[in-house]
Amino acid sequence: QSALTQPASVSGSPGQSIAISCTGSSSDVGGYNYVSWYQQHAGKAPRLLIYEVSNRPSGVSTRFSGSKSGNTASLTISGLQAEDEADYYCCSFTAWTTRVFGGGTKVTVL
Amino acid sequence: EVQLVESGGGVVQPGGSLRLSCSASGFNFNVYSMNWVRQAPGKGLEWVSYMTSDSATIHYADSVRGRFTITRDNAKNLVSLQMNNLRAEDTAVYYCARGLQYAFDQWGQGILVTVPS
């Protein structure tokens, strides 16, 4: 099971919107609405941002939104803030009942 | 407040064994699935194992199947990961994570396992 494909890095200026893509296959991202997204600051545990493609847990800012089209899921961060600088990971349930993460995307706020 | 606290990490020689534990508090442990996720130094996240609330269903990553065993004790609010035949590539921070619809909504602080090459 290969890792989902994410861009290594994405950057944006404060206030801008950025999108992070997460590409898999029909056996994972495209086959199930079980895509989740995580934010991880350096030296910290990951934090859930989005589950089931587009659902936000309570306490997560509405600036974070998720979507999916075919085999590609996306996380959009609107109104980019300095505190959003972190690593972001997608994750999907798979046809083999495993879960697979993306390789991670480093977000830089310029 | 939800808390997940891992313990049992350390340095172990290749081929050795180690047992990680995760103590849960602040929520009804009996109704949640639990997972282990790891992160090698400087690398990304890798899902390791999953167990339903009633221990009836268990899943493993291919990389650990046959070597690692997940168990839970609902009376003690504890989930464990028995790791046997450890390899250098198992070196990682291991996180205990609560399950939410195939996602992971609460995470422990992580515990380091080192297997020297």
Fraction of residues in β-strands of chain B: over 45%
- Provide the low-confidence segments of chain A as ranges: none
Q: What's the gyration radius of chain A in Å?
A: 13 Å
The H/E string of chain B reads: EEEEEEEEEEE
How far apart are the termini of chain B? 39 Å
Indicate the structural class of chain A.
mainly beta
Count every beta strand of chain B, where a strand is a DSSP E run of 2 or more residues.
11
Radius of gyration of chain B: 13 Å
Structure overview:
The complex is a heterodimer of chains A (110) and B (117). With 110 residues, chain A is mainly beta. Chain A contains no helices and nine strands. Chain A is globular, with a radius of gyration of 13 Å. The termini of chain A are far apart. The relative contact order of chain A is 0.34. Chain B has 117 residues and is an all-beta fold. Chain B starts with a strand and ends with a strand. Chain B is globular, with a radius of gyration of 13 Å. In chain B, the strands form two sheets. In chain B, strands 2, 4, 5, 6, 9, 10 and 11 form a seven-stranded mixed sheet that branches. Chain B has a four-stranded antiparallel sheet with strand order 1-3-8-7, with no helix packed on it. At the A-B interface, strand 3, strand 7 and strand 8 of A face strand 5 and strand 10 of B.
List keywords for this structure.
heterodimer, A: 110 residues, mainly beta, 6-stranded mixed β-sheet, 3-stranded antiparallel β-sheet, globular, B: 117 residues, 7-stranded mixed β-sheet, 4-stranded antiparallel β-sheet, 11 strands
Q: Could you give the topology of this structure?
A:
The complex is a heterodimer of chains A (110) and B (117).
Chain A: E1 9-12, E2 18-23, E3 35-40, E4 47-50, E5 64-69, E6 72-77, E7 86-93, E8 99-101, E9 105-109
Parallel strand pairs in A: 1-9
Antiparallel strand pairs in A: 2-6, 3-4, 3-7, 5-6, 7-8, 7-9
Chain B: E1 3-7, E2 10-11, E3 18-25, E4 34-39, E5 45-51, E6 58-60, E7 68-73, E8 78-83, E9 92-100, E10 103-107, E11 111-114
Parallel strand pairs in B: 2-11
Antiparallel strand pairs in B: 1-3, 3-8, 4-5, 4-9, 5-6, 7-8, 9-10, 9-11
